[in-house]
Design a protein that fits this description.
Blueprint: H1 3-14, H2 23-32, E1 43-45, E2 55-56, E3 62-65, E4 71-75, E5 80-81, H3 83-88, E6 95-98
Antiparallel strand pairs: 1-6, 2-5, 3-4, 3-6
């Protein structure tokens, strides 16, 4: 396993959602994912849109906004977002913007 994958495995296993995953399961999860960079103030998820993916923040911060644009929270590294809609099939419950 190369250094980058090792670091990703360490991040993933620290997230409570994935903390009970075996190494093989984490590696499957990483193969299903991709690394994406966002620009500052880029809207990533939009309130009401279909939930067909989730992300795990590795660096930086994200803002969680209401439908009207009111700030609810900020998320830091190691935080998953979009997972609830992905698991439930419900539309996005917030807009997510990169900070």
């Amino acid at each position: 396993m190369n250094e980058r994958k090792y670091q990703l495995v360490r991040v993933i296993t620290k997230i409570s959602l994935f903390s009970d995953f075996s190494l093989a399961e984490v590696q499957l999860l990483l193969r299903a994912g991709r690394v994406v960079q966002f620009k500052q103030d880029e809207q990533i998820y939009f309130y009401g849109d279909p939930s067909d993916e989730m992300l795990v923040l590795l660096r930086g911060r994200l803002a969680v906004l209401t439908e009207s644009g009111e700030g609810l929270a900020q998320l830091g590294p190691g935080t998953p977002t979009g997972e609830m809609g992905l698991f439930t099939g419900q539309p996005r419950s917030a807009t997510i913007v990169s900070l």
